[in-house]
Design goal:
conserved putative lor/sdh protein from methanococcus maripaludis s2 fold; 22 strands; 358 residues; RND_pump_MFP; alpha+beta; efflux transmembrane transporter activity; MdtA-like_BSH; Efflux RND transporter periplasmic adaptor subunit; OB fold (Dihydrolipoamide Acetyltransferase, E2P); Elongation Factor Tu (Ef-tu), domain 3; single chain; six-stranded antiparallel beta barrel; 4 domains; six-stranded mixed sheet
Length: 358
């Protein structure tokens, strides 16, 4: 019994001695991280679009009159010279019209000769007083009517002559046939496209461009154009024409880039890619490894330089590039961003910066 009391007293003394000691200091975990200092830099984005080569001047050639086409002497891909015959209409109706106009002119001229002779007789008789004034006036009127009939017949003859010439379709400039719109034997209408002619001269690279790119691209930017099947074939050009209205289906604008001295391999219809450098306002870019997510949004860890603790912050991204991201909002130049070790951090954690900050 005495022995038990001694043990209890010893235990009580030990507990009282423990109560007088100060609690042990809590160990704070300091995690090493790699960081960068955010800095603004000029933004340059290379935009690449796909298009094709067209002639700068391309015209649809057609007859000025309707008729049955009896001949088309060119096909797609043929090179033509100025004045070369492209197609012909059946000229029978127009030739008959020309003969009728010639006959009408001959009749009008005969009538004019007769009326003029009658007028001269009446004028001589009037001078001697052997004819009344009214008879002279009638002769003068008949002569003037005959002269008007001759003038009309001459005009009709010129029209008929032109219609005969219009039965033959000729090239108005040298170029290459790129399309055909009718075959021999068809009845064609006035103005209907018979052949499409890419006139010899400059070439354009044609692209469908989104409206957002038109707003951000410089007005006089230089475009580098390459053949898609052979990137070594290159030409440069500048924007020559922008469509005033967007395509109703694609909502893009047709842009023509005039090519300066295009190589011969850039044939009409060739598929090309056009690249242009777009410079925008300075932006802040960070390595993609700095990104994490919080509240279903992109976020980054920001280091407080005073106490070396970290905090999460949501950011808005402008675009992704290979290995980097461009920040639109949420990060200012000069702030310290954690770029390695982001998955092992928690808000308020102490960190130790590894290596020099760049």
């Amino acid at each position: 019994m005495a022995r038990s009391r001694v043990c209890l007293v010893s235990l009580a003394v030990a507990l009282l001695a423990g109560c007088d000691r100060e609690p042990a200091t809590k160990i704070v975990e300091v995690r090493p991280v790699r960081t960068i200092v955010a800095a603004s830099q000029p933004a340059g984005e290379m935009v690449v679009l796909t298009g094709h080569v067209q002639a700068q001047d391309e015209a649809s050639i057609g007859f000025r009159i309707a008729g049955r086409m009896i001949e088309r002497s060119v096909n797609i891909g043929d090179r033509v010279e100025m004045g070369q015959v492209l197609a012909k209409l059946d000229p029978e109706t127009e030739v008959n019209g020309l003969r009728s106009a010639q006959a009408a002119l001959s009749a009008a001229q005969a009538q004019l000769t007769q009326s003029r002779a009658a007028f001269e007789r009446q004028r001589s008789l009037l001078a001697t007083g052997h004819t009344p004034r009214a008879q002279f006036d009638l002769a003068e009127k008949a002569m003037l009517n005959a002269q008007a009939a001759v003038d009309d017949a001459e005009a009709q003859l010129r029209i008929a002559g032109r219609r005969v010439r219009y039965t033959v379709l000729v090239a108005d400039a040298p170029g290459t046939v790129t399309a055909r719109g009718a075959e021999p034997g068809e009845v064609v209408q006035a103005g209907q496209m018979i052949v499409q002619l890419a006139r010899q001269g400059g070439r354009d690279a044609v692209f469908d461009v989104p409206a957002s790119l038109l707003r951000s691209a410089p007005a006089d930017s230089e475009v580098t154009v390459r053949l898609t099947d052979d990137a070594a074939i290159v030409a440069s050009g500048r924007v020559r024409e922008v469509a005033p209205q967007a395509d109703p289906v694609t909502r893009t604008f047709l842009v023509r880039v005039g090519l300066a001295d295009p190589p011969g391999a850039m044939r009409l219809g060739s598929t090309v890619s056009g690249s242009v450098q777009i410079d925008t306002a300075p932006v802040v870019s960070i390595p993609a490894s700095a990104l994490t997510r919080v509240n279903q949004q992109p976020a980054i860890w920001i280091v407080d330089p005073n106490n070396l603790t970290v905090a999460l912050r949501n950011i808005e991204l402008l675009r992704f590039d290979p290995g980097t991201v461009v920040v639109a909002h949420g990060l200012e130049p000069g702030e310290i961003v954690v770029v390695a070790g982001v998955q092992a951090l928690h808000p308020g954690q102490k960190v130790r910066l590894l290596g020099p900050q760049v």
